[in-house]
Structures are given as structure tokens and as C-alpha cells.
Amino acid sequence: MSEPARAVIADDEPLLRESLRAALAQAWPALDIVAEAANGADAVHAVREHRPDLAFLDIEMPVMSGLEAARELRGLAHVVFVTAYDRYAIEAFDRGVVDYVLKPASAERLADTAARLRGRLRETPASLENLIEDLSRRIAPPAPPLQWLQASLGSTIRLINVDDVLYFQSDMKYTRVVTNDSDALVKTPLRELAAQLDARHFWQVHRGTLVNVSAIASVSVDETGRREIALKGRPERLEVSRAFSHLFKQM
Q: What angle do CA 243, 244, 250 make, to 5 degrees?
């Protein structure tokens, strides 16, 4: 049985907070989310009020960032940084004193995180002062999300606005780019594209598929629990793998 624990989660995007809560419920059923916050200042207040074991902090939040909030908490809770950018996460994780979650969070990734965190619950939260100072010096403003793609369409190169893309799909050595009026290929691997896209608008729903949330018409589920996405104005359906089914937990 999973050891009970209490946590606060903080992210300025309500949809991403809900996604994290759902993924945590699947990965760590015994974890009690005692409060949510939309910025770092509210997160600090929530931790001081509820005294949770864990604080899941988005690094980039208004009013007070996740790094600033972690500095204020000063060992009151074990910190888990939540970020859409590997460049933040890997640096912190490699120090061995803090864990991280890449968003949108998956239950599969969180299962590994939960296993490590359960082992730390009886320990005093590590001091992050030196790490936070180092990260604060290293972190530059994030690059803006990718807006334009150069894609091969037959023997021509076409410039595609990312907002027009319905979904991206791995296709051998290429990535297939599907819009309402075209089907093109880019040489950039799907994983690299995912890191350049705005995670609020493009969700990974399968190991080989990223979908534009605004292009989703509906999500169906069959008797086995398998989910499929129907797109607006398109006949094809996109499979949702179990690792990402928490994104549609109401289904």
C-alpha cells in the first residue's frame, strides 16, 4: 500500500493543474492534494498553512516564480519542480536533492517520481539555497514557442504557421505535419518539436502523436477503456495511449 502523504500543487494554468492532479491520483492514490495555487506567493502561503509533505511548483509563475517560492519555503516541504523545459529540470534533478516533472505530466513519469519521493518522506527536506541561486543565474528568459515551420510538400518547401497545425505524428525518419488543407513532412523529430511547442496548446496523446487542443472535437472511449480523439472537420481518429489517458480523465 502506498504511504499516505500530503501535497500542494502550484501552476498558473488551471488546465495544467487539473492534469497534474489527475496524473498524481493515478500514480499515487494515497497522496492527498490539500491545496492548489496559481502563483508562487499563494503556494508559499498554502504550504505554511497546510504544512504538506510535498510542494509541486511550476518554475514559471506570475507574482513569484517557483524558484522564488522554493527559496521562501526553506525546507518546509520536499520540492518538486514542474516545468515544460528540460533545461530547468535536468540541472535540478542531477543534483539529487530535488525531483522534477515535465508537463503535461504523465502518470507513467509520475510513478517513478512517486517512488523516489516516498523514500524521502521521513527525511528532512533538503536545503535548496545553493541550487536555487545557481539556477537563477543560469536561467535566461525562455525562447518563445515555435511559430513557423518549413515543411516539405512534394518537391516544394512550404511555410506553415504552427497555429494551423491539427496534429504532428512520427513518420519513420520524419514528422508528419497535418493541417486542414495539407499533409507535409519535416525532418525535426517529434521529441524535439514537443520541446519547442507551447505545451498549453499542443498535448502529447501518444508516443508518436502531438495534437492541437483547439482541433479536438471529442474524445470517445470503448468498453476496454481505449480512447480516440475525433478532430474538427477531419475523418481520421487519433489514438490516446494509456500513458496519456489522464488528460481526459472524465471519459
A: 120
Same fold? 5-138, 148-248: no
Q: Collect the ranges in the chain with pLDDT lower than 50.
A: 1, 251
Q: First CA to last CA across the chain, in angstroms?
A: 26
- Residue 94, C-beta contacts closer than 8 angstroms, at least 6 positions apart: none
Range list of H helices, the chain: 14-27, 40-50, 66-73, 86-94, 107-120, 129-138, 190-196
Tell me the domain boundaries of the chain: 5-138, 148-248
Q: Which of 19, 190, 32, 206 is nearest to 110 (CA)?
A: 19
Q: Output DSSP code: residue 59.
A: S
How confident is the model at residue 1, as a pLDDT?
44
pTM above 0.85, yes or no: no
The number of beta carbons lying within 10 Å of the beta carbon of residue 100 is: 21
- What is the architecture of the domain spanning 5-138? 3-Layer(aba) Sandwich (3.40)
Question: Residue 25 in 3-state DSSP?
Answer: helix
Pairing of strands 78-83, 148-153: unpaired
Cβ-based neighbour number of residue 152 at 10 Å: 14
Task: Determine the Cα–Cα distance for residues 121 and 114; give it in Å rounded to an integer.
Answer: 11
The 10s digit of each residue's pLDDT in 149-202 is 998 777 888 899 999 999 999 988 899 999 998 899 999 999 889 888 988 899
pLDDT the model gives residue 111: 86
Contact 99, 91 (CB under 8 A): no
> Is 148-248 a CATH 3.40.50.450 domain?
no
CB-based contacts of 126, cutoff 8 Å, min separation 6: 75, 78, 97, 98
